[in-house]
Amino acid sequence: MVWNAFCQSLSSNACIGIYSEAYNGMGLKGLLRLLGCKYDALRFRARVNFILGIGNIGVEWFRKSGYMYNRIFPFGYFVETPSLQNTCSNQVAVPTKSFDLIFVGQIIFRKGWDVLLYALHDLKGLKWRLHVVGDGVDRDKFVKLCARLGLTDSVHLYGALPNSEAMNLICKSDLLVLPSRWDGWGAVVNEALMCGVPAVCSDKCGAADLLDGHERGEVFSSNSILALRSILSRRISQGKKDAVRSVRIREWSKCINGESAADYLIAVINASITGGSRPIPPWFKQSEAWQDPAFRKA
């Protein structure tokens, strides 16, 4: 149905936009996917008015595919705000000595749960706890690896939880970790930031665009146990999250709420139709990332 609608729109006067994540470009399958997208670009790029690439990895994918760069705009995924704000504003911090880490997602190879466990191994002398929300086909492997690495007592596996309970755990945490080998975006990063909780994710997550390398969190090279271990060691050593910084992160997160995303989308559509100035994504305003030619190039 979607394909038929797209084909019919090609011969109309409609403004056409593509909203898509990057394909996984790794390995032989990744090369074949890129060739397929290059073929699509040859057929459709003259008719497509704009592309919303999910994260910088999405922007780069469509650039490599052959679409005109001035028609590619960074975009993301966005989550509801009110319930998150209520959860966080009503959250009473429970003082603990341990640094609370949290992973929320499927326990599958693509999510890099094993990278996280290996990174936590050998963090001697540091007091931390890992809260894991989610389930998946690798659950048994997860439990066995925890035991083999001697992490069982420090890792709490909750299984799948209702969203409200998962959000409550995120709000209590000091750092969210998303170590994915590949993640088109990773909306749990949005949720953490809206709770005033910094995040760490791999450079294969589109949501890496939201992290500033400092207060809001950091990005590490996907699959790099040493890089992730270095970040976690430093963060845990610095101590639990600070209430003032949490408020600043929550205030910043207003730029990734639904209203801000909608305003930016409208600006993209208007610029695509009228040829006006290229709008800046609200999460990049006053950010060093937007000064990067990879984003600014047109």
Number of strands: 9
Number of domains: 2
Walk across the major sheet and give the strand order: 6-5-4-7-8-9
Provide the residue-averaged pLDDT: 90
Instruction: Give the amount of beta strand, in percent.
Output: 5-15%
**What's the name of the CATH homologous superfamily of the largest domain?**
Glycogen Phosphorylase B
Biggest sheet layout? 6 strands, parallel
**How many separate helices?**
12
What distance lies between the first and last C-alpha atoms, to the nearest angstrom? 33 Å
CATH topology group of the largest domain: Rossmann fold
Shape, principal axes of CA atoms: globular
Going by CATH, the architecture of the largest domain would be 3-Layer(aba) Sandwich
CATH domain class of the largest domain: Alpha Beta
Q: Which stretches are poorly predicted, pLDDT < 50 over at least 5 residues?
A: 90-94, 293-298
Helix amount: 40-55%
